[in-house]
Structures are given as structure tokens and as C-alpha cells.
Amino acid sequence: MISAVGVRNVVENQVDFTRSRNLLIAAVILVSGLGFNGTGGLTFAVANAHVTLTGLAIAAIAGVALNAILPGNDFAFGKTASADGSADLGRY
């Protein structure tokens, strides 16, 4: 079910896989998700508790991290929030 939603998002948003950035992020997500599912994930100790990250969690973290650090994203920082009115809550 999760993969079906992911594929639908890729198709609806027309992700351009000719850009190496997008292809690399998708490849790392797929390989880490499938690879760590076969090994049972990563288990580590935090204080007195043992935490296990499944393949899905590792793939999600890897995808978010790569999307944030790889160059070429189309975010525009420094614009005011009121410029487009999306953050406008009206008058009180």
C-alpha cells in the first residue's frame, strides 16, 4: 500500500528522473528500504531501551536527508510569508 501511494505521488507530480539528483534519491530510498528489510533493520541501544529502525524508517530518513543536502532543490528562502497570502489567517 505504501509503495502504491509513493508511485502515485511520483506520477502525479511528474518527477523528472532524467535529473541525476532525483534518480539518486529514489535509488537510495529503494535500495535502503529493500536492503534493510532483508536484514531486519538497525538495532541500537538508547539508555536502557533498544530501538529498532525498520527498512521503511531508514529509507524515509535517507530520503529526507538526501533531499535536504543535495544541491538543486527548488526552494526559495528569504521570501516573506505574506507575499503570497498562504500564511494569512485573516483579521481578528
From TrEMBL:
It comes from bioreactor metagenome. The chain crosses the membrane at residues 23-45, 51-70. Keywords: Membrane, Transmembrane, Transmembrane helix. The keyword Transmembrane applies. This is Uracil permease.
